[in-house]
């Protein structure tokens, strides 16, 4: 058995590009920068190092999502990795990209850093429980 699942969150590195296959299937492509923290051996300080991940989404959802994304948008993505290779100018090239199954917007439409926190409402507090209603003689 093998598992091919990936979850990333980060910011778009460029505006998304919407195109279509020869058969008319919409394809949305964009890059996401995902930071990795490492300790700098010379300074001893923690530093962010970006990883740049190509992402692709297919179908009518790709068309819909394209309207709401732009460079800098923060997103969370779940999908699978796909490796592809091709030849250009006599040189073999390859890349790994994320094929998107689920995408969540983490920026507000106004460009805020986290729209989710702006719309989050805390659940109501649990009602107080009167402990005297429980029978202490219950054996479990």
Structure explained in plain terms:
The chain has helices at 60-66, 115-119; strands at residues 6-12, 17-20, 26-39, 46-58, 74-88, 91-105. The chain is mostly beta strands and 140 residues long. Strands 1-3-4-6-5 form a five-stranded mixed barrel. The protein is globular, with a radius of gyration of 23 Å.
Concise account of the structure shown:
The protein is mainly beta. Helices cover 9% and strands 49% of the residues. It has helices spanning 60-66, 115-119, and strands at residues 6-12, 17-20, 26-39, 46-58, 74-88, 91-105.
Primary descriptors:
140 residues, mainly beta, OB fold (Dihydrolipoamide Acetyltransferase, E2P), 2 helices
Structural class estimated from helices and strands = mainly beta
Strands in their spatial order, largest beta sheet: 1-3-4-6-5
- The dominant shape is globular
DSSP helix fraction: under 10%
Mean pLDDT: 84
CATH fold-level assignment = OB fold (Dihydrolipoamide Acetyltransferase, E2P)
Total number of domains: 1
Rg, alpha carbons:
23 Å
Distinct helical segment count:
2
- Extended strand count: 6
Largest beta-sheet characterization? 5 strands, mixed, barrel
Task: Chart the SSEs and their pairings.
Layout: E1 6-12, E2 17-20, E3 26-39, E4 46-58, H1 60-66, E5 74-88, E6 91-105, H2 115-119
Parallel strand pairs: 4-6
Antiparallel strand pairs: 1-3, 1-5, 2-3, 3-4, 5-6
């Amino acid at each position: 058995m093998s598992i091919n699942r990936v979850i990333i969150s980060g910011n778009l590195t460029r505006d998304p590009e919407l195109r279509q296959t020869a058969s008319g299937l919409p394809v949305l492509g964009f890059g996401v920068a995902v930071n990795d923290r490492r300790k700098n051996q010379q300074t001893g300080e923690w530093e962010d190092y970006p990883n740049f991940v190509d992402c692709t989404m297919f179908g009518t959802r790709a068309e819909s999502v394209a309207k709401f994304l732009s460079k800098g948008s923060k997103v969370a993505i779940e999908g699978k990795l796909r490796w592809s290779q091709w030849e250009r100018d006599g040189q073999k090239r390859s890349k790994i990209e994320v094929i998107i199954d689920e995408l969540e917007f983490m920026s507000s439409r106004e460009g805020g850093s986290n729209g989710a926190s702006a719309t989050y409402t805390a659940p109501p507090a649990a009602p107080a429980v009167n402990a005297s209603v429980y029978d202490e003689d219950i054996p479990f």
